[in-house]
Amino acid sequence: MNSVSAALAALMDAVSGLSGQFGEGVASHLTTTAGLQREHVETRYQGQVIDFDTLHWRVLNDSVCANKRQNAMAHTRCSQAASEMFASTCREMTSNPPTLPSQRYNSTRRMACNAAVSYRPSVGNIQWAETSAADDLAEAECNAATAALLGSNDLDAIQYQRRVCAGR
Predict the structure, then answer these.
(1) DSSP the chain
(2) CB distance 37 to 31 below 8 Å
(3) Tens digit of each residue's pLDDT (9 = 90 or more) over 84-140
(4) How many CB atoms lie within 10 A of CB 106?
(5) What's the confidence (pLDDT) of residue 20?
(6) What is the dihedral of CA 94, 99, 13, 47, to 10 degrees?
(7) Separation of alpha carbons 53 and 49, rounded Å
(8) pLDDT of residue 62
(9) Tell me, what's the pLDDT at 32?
């Protein structure tokens, strides 16, 4: 099973609401299959665990990869994979529909296609800032002025340190 099919299967299972349990009440079954309750979906796509919530057969964009927001690089990787997953799921479901597509299938396809259009992944790139020789010299001068202040109450030294360290 390729990754698109696996993601599609997980998506359909998560949002279908058909658990196969006969003990569910009719109201509960209708509420779930109509997408009236917030549902949490967690699936794996291209090596990334992608999680998101759905409500009214729509992906809640702010919930996509929400558990990775504290780590910018992990969130970027997850949100990029989620965006690709929504697009590939939409393409797959649109180009290969079943002979008699169910209402659930059509709702899931619309949900994936809407998410493919509306979801915008985060783009983060963290790297060390390049410093110039002037920046390095200014930092060294500030460090020297700060070191000179240790154990000193000289007003001129305090003012000098404040001046050379301004903005740092």
Answers:
(1) --HHHHHHHHHHHHHH-----TTS-HHHHHHHHTT-S-EEEEEEETTEEEEEEEETTEE-GGGTTGGGTTSHHHHHHHHHHHHHHHHHHHHHHHHS--SS--HHHHHHHHHHHHHHHH---------PPP--HHHHHHHHHHHHHHHHHTT---HHHHHHHHHHTTT-
(2) yes
(3) 999 999 999 999 999 888 888 999 999 999 999 999 998 877 677 787 888 888 999
(4) 13
(5) 42
(6) -50
(7) 14
(8) 95
(9) 56
Alpha-carbon distance of 90 to 16, in angstroms, equals 16
Give the pair of three-digit tokens for residue 71: 């780590």
Q: What's the residue count for the chain?
A: 168
pLDDT for res 133: 85
Amino acid identity of residue 59, one-letter, is V
Distance in angstroms (rounded) separating the CA atoms of residues 146 and 167: 14
- The two tokens of residue 167 are 């903005």
